[in-house]
Amino acid sequence: MSYSLRSQYAVCLEDESDEDGRKQCPFENNNQSPRFRNTLGDRSERIRTYNFPQNRLTDHRINLTLYSLDRVMEGLMDDLLDALVSRNEDLRLESQLSRIAGGTANA
Q1: In this structure, how many other beta carbons lie within 10 angstroms of the beta carbon of residue 34?
Q2: pTM of this prediction?
Q3: Are residues 39 and 53 in the same domain?
Q4: Residues 27 and 41 sit within 8 Å (Cβ to Cβ)
Q5: 58 plus 41 within the same structural domain
Q6: Which member of 34, 43, 91, 100 has the lowest number of beta carbons within 10 Å of its beta carbon?
Q7: Which region holds residue 37: left if phi is over 0, alpha if psi is between -120 and 50, else beta?
């Protein structure tokens, strides 16, 4: 268990208790506390995968795979950032179009 998880576990044991005075911890049940929900996420909810032997970075949110992990680790993230910005713009446009389409359908 990493230092971060151990410290969160210790904090949750100190801070949280239920009606009976028993200690409750999200490590025992993920649905107990939203405070720790992100750190205990399911593996299927991954955002990025770093594969060093294949020099590959995959961003699962935008379905992007780059074979330049070494450059990203050196701080040269232009390709990754451009893809993220482009996806963000696409999502904003889709949202605006759905609002416009929804507004004209009601008129």
Answers
A1: 8
A2: 0.53
A3: no
A4: no
A5: no
A6: 43
A7: alpha
